[in-house]
Amino acid sequence: MISLDHPFAPPLPTQHGGYFDRKLVSDTWTKADVTVTQQFWRRPLGHAVRSFADAGFVVDCVVEARPTEDAIVQFPELEAVADLPSFIVYRLRRDTAR
Q1: Which residues of 47-77 are buried (b: 16+ CB within 10 A; e: fewer)?
Q2: Most buried among 7, 26, 32, 53, by the most CB within 10 A?
Q3: How far is residue 80 from each of residues 11, 28, 72, measured CA to CA in Å?
Q4: What does pTM read for this prediction?
Q5: From CA 60, how far away is CA 93, in angstroms rounded?
Q6: pLDDT tens, position by position, 1-59
Q7: Spatial contact of 50 and 7, defined as CB atoms under 8 Å apart
Q8: How far apart are the C-alpha atoms of 44 and 22, rounded to whole Å?
């Protein structure tokens, strides 16, 4: 399994360009007095799937992760983004037909 940013997620405030642009972006947030900066690639869905295929994998399952009700109770700020795509999880398997 691999988790990536969702290709349909709203762009970050510092992100420019369109859906089909491939760009390294970063996001910084603070929780419990700890600041974290994460870098990740924004890319269209087709690019991600082609990359898996080029590496010899087949997408077996896709899960569009959302915060649970328990998570929203613990972190109420998640309610504002609960209906927006954020992460996408791919279950991959080796392509044995190659």
Answers
A1: ebbeeeeeeebeeeeeeeeebeeeebeeeee
A2: 7
A3: 15, 18, 9
A4: 0.78
A5: 6
A6: 888 889 998 887 778 888 898 988 888 989 889 999 988 888 999 999 999 999 999 99
A7: no
A8: 7
